[in-house]
């Protein structure tokens, strides 16, 4: 299964939501992998900065619009999508949702959205 965390706006906690979702899945024994498709690479940076004594317990893999279509189905795959205007989340959603086990979460910038 794939879950794409996406919003047209930057700075609305897409990466934080993606990391927390992966952590929640891992804590429940679900194999999970995070794909960092945001050009800023915040999820990858988060992974790199995790301390040696408390590393993230799942892999964070840099991704792009081509590699998203080749994500294996061997675990839960969470995709941290770029904002529109910085690569276009629509292209990532289209690629990640082309397959039958794909879901998209459109993350709102405010709770009221």
**Percentage beta strand:** 15-25%
Find the CATH topology. Rossmann fold
Amount of helix? 25-40%
SS field, number of helical segments: 4
Query: Mind telling me the CATH superfamily name?
Result: P-loop containing nucleotide triphosphate hydrolases
Unreliable parts: none
Give a quick account of the main beta sheet: strands, pairing sense, barrel closure: 5 strands, parallel
Order of helices and strands: EHEHEHEHE
**CATH architecture descriptor:** 3-Layer(aba) Sandwich
Radius of gyration: 13 Å
Please state the average pLDDT score.
80
Described by the principal axes of the CA atoms, the overall outline is globular
Alpha-beta classification: alpha/beta
Q: Report, as a whole number of angstroms, the end-to-end distance.
A: 25 Å
The total number of structural domains is 1
Query: CATH top level?
Result: Alpha Beta
What is the strand arrangement across the widest sheet? 3-2-4-1-5
Annotation, overall tally of beta strands: 5
